[in-house]
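Schema walk-through. Below, the input block comes first and the output block second. Nothing else is stored per chain. Lengths vary across the set, and this one has 113 residues.
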Amino acid sequence: MNWDKNIYFQESSLVIMPIYMLATRLQNPELMEKRKETGEKWLKMVNEKLPDIKWIAHYAILGPYDFIDIFMAKNENEAAKVSLLSRARGAVFAESWTAIPYKDFLGLLKELD
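--- output ---
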């Protein structure tokens, strides 16, 4: 898959979905100790409740957040549900952002000229 674009193939058809990023922070020490198990349960729950979400990447990061997930969703409502499910499973803080592929961003700049 070419991650430079928010495109994937589903049953011989081309699907284009927006890209979102979810930054989360955990503060419960038990969640850190059982991170792998907790993360797998969360992912299973999200996949069951929101089967159209397409995961791109999951990173543990340094800084004010503990993790960042990059995914495609049909719209901002679906992306918000991912964030809400994260909060329901122990994230103290969850923030979602829309991500625009860089080439598309350059196209937006050209439109403003």
